[in-house]
Structure formats: C-alpha cells, structure tokens
Write a structure and sequence with these properties.
- This protein is of the alpha/beta class.
- It has a domain at about 35-110 and about 165-210 and about 220-375: Deoxyhypusine Synthase.
- It has helices at about 5-15, 30-40, 45-60, 80-90, 100-110, 125-130, 140-155, 165-185, 190-200, 210-225, 235-250, 265-270, 270-280, 310-315, 320-325, 335-345, 360-375, 375-380, and strands at about 65-70, 95, 115, 130-135, 135-140, 165, 200-205, 230, 255-260, 290-295, 325-330.
C-alpha cells in the first residue's frame, strides 16, 4: 500500500476529529435546542443548525445585533410571530428594513385584515374584485386607501415639519402609532410602536420605494412650502456608520448582523463598515458574526446572496467572521425563522436589557464627526483626481 503524504495524514487526523453523523431517534420529549443541535446533521439542516448556534453566540457574547429584513414580511406576520418577541427580549438593537414593511404593518392596527388566498385563482378576477395580492396573501384595496389617510394625517403633525433621517422619522411615527394603539385598545402592537418603546432605531435605505414616502410626495405637492418634511440621505448614511462606530468603539461590543432575505436592507447595513474605513478613514474591522437566510443562489453576482467571504473583501465583515462566525442558510425565511425564534425564546437565558441605541444617536453622530475632523487633512487628499476638475467639456 502506498504511503500517505504528510498532508494526507494531517487531513485524516482532522477528519477523524470531526463530529460523527449519528443523530439519535426523536422521541417528542426533546427541547427545541436539543432538536436543532443534535438532529440537524447535514445539508440545509446543518446550515440552519449553525445559524442557530451563531445567533445564540450573538446573545451570549452580548453583541450589538443589527437585524435586516426585506420582502413582504409584515403582511405575512413575521414581525408579530418573531421580530416583536425578539425586541421584547432585548435581543435586537437596530433594524434596517423596507418602507413597505412598515406601511403594511399598519393595516391591522386600524382594523383591516390580511387573508390567505389562492395564488392561482386569477389576477384578472382579483383586480375586478379590488383585491390586492402578495403571492398567497390578499387584502381589500380599501386597506391601502385607509392606510394612506392614516399616514397622511400623522405626517402633517408639527414634529414632522423639518429635515430628518429615517430613524427619526420612524421614531416619531412609532410614537404616534403607539398612541393610536392605546386609544384603540390594540392588543398586538406594531413593529413601529414596539421599536419606539424600546429605543430601537429603524433605518430604511430606499425610503422613496414605499407607500409612506408616496404619501410624503402627495403632501408636498398638495401643501407646498407649508409641508416642510425632508429626508436627508447623506445624514442617514452617516448615522448608520455612527451607530456602528458607537457599538464597537464607544460601547466596546462585538457586532452581529442577522439578515432575513437580502436586498437593500442587507447592503445598507453592511456598507456602514466600508463607509467608516475606506471613505472616512476611521478604523474598523467589520461585523463579527454574520447570519443570513435567503433563497437566492450565490453565484449570479447578486448582492442579496453574496457570502461573508465576499463581504470581507469589501471590509464589511471581519476575518474571524469568515472563519468561524458566518453562515448563509439557503432557505426561505418564513420556513425556518419562526422555528429558530422559538428555540431561542424557549431558553429563559436568551434575554437582556434593551440597549436603546436610538437614545444614543445624537452622541454617536457627534463622536463620529470628531473622528472625521481629526482626519480632515488626510481626507482632503482623497477628494481630487488629476484632470477630473479641469477637463473641458466638448461642445
């Protein structure tokens, strides 16, 4: 028999140390933790197990945890089943989502229902009946019109008549929605009001791509200069960087990101790190734990599905995250995340005091601005390029 190479011997020793795939029979008496850690040995199941273990590590290490979610998650009720309970246990510190998710969340607050429907019943018929469809969910068109009235009325309030960022907009909206819920006796609060109560900032990276902003457009055109609400996208991006800098530089906490789906919310959160390091010259090392649930393939160049290693090349996640702190779980969020939330919340140790990052936003922004001011001379050298400012435009 041929002798094995030194490298082969090393690989065999490493292989022999790997866990044995021999799960025990399920009896029905196991805890969710036992099921996930002992009965999910391979394939997407193992991805799910690893994601769960990293989520637990995020909590046990008291990471500052940033949650991103895209897709129609609030119409499907994922915020009620999973996200709000996680917020109530203090396990989420900052959120990035879409304006649509925050808008659709308000339907149930004012008494409208979202129902299960047949996605193959025929969209021409649904349109004639004025039923709006989101795959296998449906609601009356009046639901949209009534929700438009709600946000139009709220946004005319005096506290909104100024320039602001999306976290401030959603905090103020959360305060108003919270009061409405109390007046109506709502038992299941919205994501906006829950985040408001717990000081969790909510960013929306493409705010103009949602119906809350469509109503801002209406009010601006209808009321003219008397309607003074403006959203400052430059300050918004800077504020995301300031939140992250506050977590790792001021609070000295490791950072975790839990990504549900992909899209703009994923990149808007992750780009805070290259903003700091590459653009502003403020040292950082990226997120320490990176967990994502998404059905997209990883080989088509799409940002939604790019793995942690690719993100590391941009400075978005740390080297440690790539090595031992990352998992891309190739699965539908709605199929796996409720189960993982149940497993986490069934452990009474999985809770902590809310970090209330929103309350720290003013100080965090000022701190990051001081870091930029310290580097003003060096940064000044990065804003010119030969010929770019002197080239003559051709007639």
């Amino acid at each position: 028999m041929a002798k094995r190479s030194t490298q082969g011997t090393h690989l065999r020793r490493h292989f022999e140390a790997a866990p044995d795939v021999r799960p025990r029979a399920i009896t029905g008496r196991e805890t969710p933790h036992q099921i996930l850690t002992e009965r999910f040995p391979a394939y997407v199941g193992r991805q799910e197990r690893t994601a769960y273990e990293l989520m637990r590590r995020s909590i046990e290490q008291d990471c500052a945890t940033f949650l991103t979610f895209s897709g129609a998650m609030t119409p499907a009720g994922l915020h009620q089943s999973c996200l709000i309970p996680l917020l109530e246990r203090g396990l989420i510190d900052c959120i990035t989502t879409t304006g649509a998710n925050l808008y659709h969340d308000a339907h149930r607050i004012i008494g409208h229902r979202i129902r299960e429907i047949d996605p193959t019943a025929g969209d021409l018929q649904y349109r004639l009946a004025r039923i709006i469809r989101i795959y296998d969910l449906g609601f009356w068109e009046e639901t949209l019109l009534e929700t438009d009235k709600l946000f139009s009325a709220i946004l005319r309030g005096p506290e909104f008549q100024k320039k602001m960022t999306t976290p401030e907009l959603h905090y103020l909206l959360g305060a108003r929605i919270h009061d409405i819920e109390k007046a109506l006796g709502v038992k299941e609060p919205s994501l906006l009001s829950t985040a408001y109560e717990r000081g969790v900032p909510i960013f929306v990276g493409a705010v103009q791509d949602g119906s809350i902003f469509l109503n801002i457009v209406k009010l601006k055109r209808l009321l003219g200069e008397s309607f003074k609400l403006e959203l400052d996208v430059c300050d918004d991006v800077f504020e995301m960087g300031a939140m992250q800098h506050h977590c790792f530089a001021t609070l000295k906490r490791p950072m975790a990101v839990w990504i549900l789906g992909g899209g703009v919310p994923k990149n808007y959160t992750l780009q805070g790190e290259p903003l700091l390091d590459q653009i502003l010259g403020v040292p950082t090392h990226g997120f320490d734990i990176d967990v994502q649930f998404c059905v997209d393939p990883v080989d088509n160049g799409a940002l939604s599905s790019c793995p942690a290693g690719e993100g590391h090349t941009w400075g978005k996640v740390s080297a440690e995250s790539v090595a031992t702190g990352s998992m891309y779980c190739h699965a539908d969020v709605t199929a796996v995340f409720p189960w993982l939330t149940y497993a986490l919340l069934s452990d009474p140790k999985m809770k902590r005091k809310p970090r209330r990052l929103y309350d720290a936003r003013t100080g965090a922004i000022a701190t990051l601005q001081r870091e930029v001011d310290k580097r003003r001379k060096q940064l000044g050298e990065t804003i010119d390029y030969p010929l770019a400012g002197r080239a003559k435009r051709r007639a």
